[in-house]
Amino acid sequence: MSESTRMLLGLALGIIVMIVLVMKTKVHSFMALLIAAMITGIIGGMPISDITLADGTTQTGLITAIQEGFGSTLKSTGIIIGLGVMMGGILEKSGAAEKMAYSFIKLIGQKNEEWALAITGWFISIPVFADSAIVIFAPLCKAMSKVTGKSVVGLALSLAVGLQLTHCLVPPTPGPLTAAGMFNVDVGQMIIGGALISIPMLIVVVFYTKWIGKKIYQVPNDEGGFDRKEFKQEYIKSMDELNAMMDAKQLPGFWVSVAPIFIPIILILLKTVLGFVGISNSVVDFLGSPIVALGIGTLLAIYGLVPKEDNKAVLKMMDDAIKDTGIIMLITGAGGSLGNVVKVSGIGTALGEMVTSWALPAVLIPFIIAALMRIALGSATVAITTAASLTAPLMSVLSISPLLMSLSCCVGAISFSYFNDSGFWVFNGMFGLTELKDQVRCKTAVSMIMSGVGVLELLIAQFFI
Known about the structure:
Helices cover 73% and strands 2% of the residues. By secondary structure, it is an all-alpha fold. The longest helix has 33 residues, at 62-94. The model has no long low-confidence stretch (mean pLDDT 82). This is Gluconate:H+ symporter.
């Protein structure tokens, strides 16, 4: 067996073991990723510890590669994830997220509720995790369904697709942020690229959500359940009642609600744009760094949205929001460990040489890996991290834009939302979908449509970027 074959066998066995551990055992994804890295490195021929060669150079050992990969990945993403989650917690608890949703609905207009919710989801998921946002906005979706007569399924699914797109494509959400870090892509470029590629995907899929809302027509009833019936055009009503309901709530103003999101994005994009045109400004470079920009956004949320709240109450908002991010950071770091093992061991080079011999566009390689990981593991963030960790080492043998490769990881992770995806069950439970056929026609179908459109965009974009 040749050395390159042994390396690739180690990688294949590592991934297979990881998938089996996650799907069939009680082993957590974090540990499964670390075990996969160890199997990959050992079979790939890495020494366990660092060794000094005859020429005086040091060969990196497996344990060192795992530690360095973990640390270097979190160095670029950990602080940003923490700040983004804390800011999102305040947006949720203060009512600012709800204010943004209602403002977008009013802006886009009556009878365009699906578009309003899709755009709302697109913006909201930048600072707020998608599953959390579905729960937060479920009452709004149900209220809109009751007062407009439109199916809650079509309305909520429109919100869900917007949430999913930016969750997978636009930093500072963990997945695309990790992909950008692993491919050494500027965060501002990733924001622009992810946002642009998501727009056609959003436009196409919303037509489907409007259609499926008529095929699965159900509206909330006064008992807390849902009434299912055949759709008739006469069921559609006005939004006056929703306007009255929202006017009765004590919500923050629009500009103070959107400032924590928009100002950091503007600062990051300003730094990126000036860099493109060759202008260097130390103040912009400082303020436009993701850590500083997100820090400013978090401070704006604290002092703009909850200025009269007790200090302990505000701290609790942020503490509650950040509780679930520890495991995200662990998984992100472990993905970096696997990627570093692939890189240091030489497996990345062997894999690159093999892949470049295939009659397959390079831009599809991360997509396919991410899609397979999404099928196997359910988590879009883990799928992006795994795809990026496996394909980033190939950049030395592939002549393609790192931005496109990082976006390909993200587009692949959008696909195949089904039974092992927590968001799949959150959506079905919140909006009364109990039949398997209906469940697949909603979350699974839209994930396939969005990723299909994304693949076409990637194949076209490779000729221009």
